[in-house]
Amino acid sequence: MNIKIPHNFIAVEGPIGVGKTTLARKLSEVLGSELILEEAEENPFLERFYQDPKSGALPTQLYFLFQRARQLQEVRQSDMFTPLRVADYLMDKDRLFARSTLDPEELRLYEQVFDNLTIDAPKPDLVIYLQAPVTVLAERIKKRGRREESPISQEYLQTICDAYTDFFYYYHESPLLIVNASGIDLVENEKDFEMLLEQIHATTSGRNYFNPHPV
């Protein structure tokens, strides 16, 4: 089932456990698009970071920086061949995480590396920002049962959620759809997904909100 929407590049963002990749995969399937995933499981430093953030933060962040820059440069170079793409990250998230996890000396080094990279990332014409309370994120992370994620604390999740909140408060680079994802079940509840598709189709400018289950 391919559905026509007025977008060429959709990026799905939000903190760990909120459902970015699940939504990106389903959108790609339904819309018949190319899927771009950040593939965090390929980062050999990520488990070390979760176990010992102080020692693992810098190599983890630099690996992600090079990985994301390479991926998005490849997307830029092949723009003419693919009419629609869905990604489960924004390039901007790299600096968001760096500023949340690195100490001042590491951050200065990271910024030097970032500034010397040639990053010509394509700009999404729609960003979907998924939000959920820390308790919901922690429960979802626990439910999916990935061994490397078991050390993740609610304090770390709160730090990342706060960073995302601040980032998107000032974000004006692309049309933005902010979604309350705490009550969405993209696997079992087709009605939720169809309502979200309607919102995606309607969001072509500005800042927009979707709360499928208001209290």
TrEMBL record:
Keyword set, alphabetical order: ATP-binding, Kinase, Nucleotide-binding, Transferase
GO molecular function, one term: ATP binding
Cellular component terms (Gene Ontology): cytoplasm
Segments forming domain Deoxynucleoside kinase: 10-201
Active site residues per record: D88 (proton acceptor)
Organism: Kangiella geojedonensis
Protein name in the entry: Deoxyadenosine kinase
Short name of any one Pfam family annotated for the protein: dNK
Residues in the signal sequence: none
Listed InterPro entries: DCK/DGK, Deoxyribonucleoside_kinase, DNK_dom, P-loop_NTPase
Residues reported in the UniProt entry to bind ATP: G14, P15, I16, G17, V18, G19, K20, T21, T22, R140, I141, K142, K143, R144
Superkingdom of the organism of origin: Bacteria
